[in-house]
UniProtKB/TrEMBL annotation:
UniProt KW Electron transport keyword: no
Superkingdom of source: Bacteria
Species name: Microbacterium sorbitolivorans
Family: Belongs to the glycosyl hydrolase 2 family.
The protein's name in its UniProt record: Glycoside hydrolase family 2 domain-containing protein
Pfam families, alphabetized: Glyco_hydro2_C5
The entry's keywords: Glycosidase, Hydrolase
Amino acid sequence: MPSSETRAGSSALVAGDSDLAYVALELRDADGVLVADADTEVTVTVTGSAELAGMASANPKTTERFADTTWRTFDGRAIAVIRPTDEGPAEVTARSSAGEATVALTVTAT
């Protein structure tokens, strides 16, 4: 059974309209190897000083919308785009049947 993993390209965001964080959502086995053939729905929630701007996967035939909070992984992966809303801490949590994973972000002043 794969587990969920999240990673942020950067853990720091600048408050305002011009910064985004891209959080990789991946399904990995017990050894940390990507499980590319185990796709599942992943729901993302954001708390604190940021919001979910959108989600995506590389699936060329998806019917999901960028603004949806739940996406099906494609080849074991999806991505969440996070937008800062104010200065302070933020937390991104991904939940799926494979488990739950969280990444912390910090939004700094402009």
